[in-house]
Amino acid sequence: MAIDADEIGQDASAALASGREDHLAAMRHSAAHMMAAAVLEVFPDARLGIGPAIKDGFYYDFDLPRPLTPDDLEQIEEKMRAQQAADLAFEHSRDLPREEAIGLNRERNQPFKVEIIQDLPESEGPTVSFYRHGTFEDLCRGGHLESTAQLGAFKLLHTAGAYWRGDETRPMLQRIYGTAWDTQEELDRYLWRIEEARKRDHRKLGRELDLYTFHPESPAAPFLHPRGMAIWRALEDWSREVRRGAGFHEVRTPSLVRKELWETSGHWANYQDNMFVLDDYDHVSGLKPMNCPEEILIYKTRARSYRDLPIRFADYSVLFRKERTGVLAGMFRVRQLTQDDSHVFCREDQLDDELRLALSLVRKQYAPFGFEPKARLATRPEKRIGSDEFWERAENRLRDRLEEDGMSYALDEGGGAFYGPKIDIFIEDALGREWQMATIQADYQLPQRFDLEYRAADGGFERPVIVHYAIYGSFERFIGIITEEYAGAFPLWLAPVQVMVVPIADRHLDYAERVRVALADAGLRAEVDSRSERMQAKLREAQEQKIPVMVVVGDRDQEATAVSPRLRTGESHQGVALDEFVADLVSRNAARELWPFADEAAS
RNA sequence: GCCGAGGUAGCUCAAUGGCAGAGCAUCGGUUUUGUAAACCGACGGUUGUGGGUUCGACUCCCACCCUCGGCUCCA
To answer: Which of A79, A288, A335, A422 is catalytic?
Structure first.
């Protein structure tokens, strides 16, 4: 078999990359040890939790007598620098039989360490290892730098509460997050990325660009301003276009639904606490957190034939989820959301094709954004319904489709929904952050719970399968993500105001309005800046609003029925014929190009 | 829900127990302009809400609301 030269190159660079990853992980893990030692210097009574390396850095959890302050962090960081300067060797100090190790940690008053040792599986062997640098010794599997002097550039970032072992019934410890890199340049670049993310915060941009705002009168629900709504509509139009070609039919279903439906679906048992429940005279009703059971009611309104299937419903209804207050976050986590929800009722023998269709629609719908989807296969959770045999079959099916599609995917053990496994799709944004987007689920449970059936070719009754998916996920969240991805500089097809017409003097107002109408008639979103301001001021304003195209109109343009466009990128032209200009924008808009540039704001 | 931080004019931010202020925005006027900010003036506040301490509270204390960073959760 011939070996592709490119493949060798890729393997080699992958090996290099993973060697570098190992090195960074060892360094960050070592930094965590040094931080623990420093914390013990400041708080001799501190009890230690765990301290792993993570993406971009490390953390360590502590039980401390009082909350940490920013001053404490500085002090701890200084003590770490002192260790770094002291060039202390990291050494494998000893291996102790479990009982002795437990005794040692009891003596040191480290109950969390005792618990870790007690819970180590037998397969880890009869002894546990300890590592030391300076006077600090910690229970540890190993994987360190040779010496504290090898720690590169680091910084302690912030503190946060974290439950011991991630269990909310256990004590809450104080976690200190830090970051560590080989060089100061890499550290600076990372800190720049954090700063850049802060600047792109969608809550800030949403207000500055007049897209959406949040108000305490309706917490965790965005108020969409005209400009935000324009983005929403552009997204919705694209979603409908994608689904129309794929044979979907749009439905709309009620928000307020009696609890019996949720009992049948299983949501009442599993998510009752996260539903808004209302008193409906002598009934109990809930605001719907999901569309599926209602699509099912539509399915059941008539006898279905095998010839009717697949039936594909799209539903853009509003959903309500009573999220715990602490999880709310701008557009990312809201209590009222709208999905581009899709439900396909199909025969078992059509399922593979429907999963293929779903994956292809994900690719298609993401293409104009420049998003490259990756997947996670989320398998059976602890809290679930259905037999193991069912889960096995369903998981394999999803895996096969992913393999076949070639989409890169990872496993998310136990991450499935209570009624079935799912494919979660995520993307990486311009700053290297990952966002979970679409989710695709093959569901055998709801059809059974609702006793769905269709008449088969042989005259018998068969049970359909439901494929659930949402590609944007929720519109709210998606808008938040793309606001940050583009740093507010939306490509033409998404820009709330696509063209700002800038008359030079008041005598050009009539012509400016004529230009606006020409653009609007062509289906573009255009406005005239009719203020009695200087042209430069209007351009600055439009530029700050990240409007992709400005057109200046003055005497020369008016005479020639032309415009003088200026792009957000700074590029400008004089005296372009109005017809040509409109036609050019119309075609770029229709093609949903990433134009003028997607990431110009990042540069 | 839990841990921590925060909330002053529409926005960004000053004022640490003693007269709540600036820039931008807004409004009025002057200016009519060729590719990123014209000039002059005016308006704007129950300092998140409610209680308390004090001669006096933006400032100190308590409760609540909202937001942010995390943890847990995410059908």
So the answer is: A422
- Tell me the pLDDT of chain A averaged across its residues: 93
A185 class by beta-carbon count within 10 Å (0-12 exposed, 13-18 middle, 19+ buried): exposed
Residue A28 sits at the vertex; the CA angle it makes with A25 and A29, to the nearest 5 degrees, is 80
Would you give the DSSP letter of residue A90?
P
DSSP-derived secondary structure letter, A592: T
The Å distance, CA of A539 to C1' of B12, is: 22
Active site residue A29: no
- pTM comes to 0.94
Instruction: Give all strands (DSSP E) within A259-306, no chain letters.
Output: 277-280, 283-287
Rounded to whole angstroms, the distance from the CA of residue A72 to the C1' of nucleotide B55 is 39
Sort residue A386 into left (φ over 0), alpha (ψ -120 to 50) or beta.
left
In A82-235, which ranges are E strands?
Answer: 91-97, 127-133, 136-139, 153-163, 172-181, 212-213, 223-224
Catalytic residue of the set A288, A292, A516, A525 = A292
Which nucleotide C1' is nearest A575 CA? Answer: B34
pLDDT, one tens digit per residue, over A187-222 is: 999 999 999 999 999 999 999 999 999 999 999 999
Mean pLDDT of A569-595: 96
Quick one: how far is CA A349 from the chain centroid? 33
User: Nearest protein residue to B7's C1' (by CA)?
Assistant: A216
CA–C1' gap, A522 and B34, in angstroms: 26
- The CA distance from A441 to A423, in Å, is 6
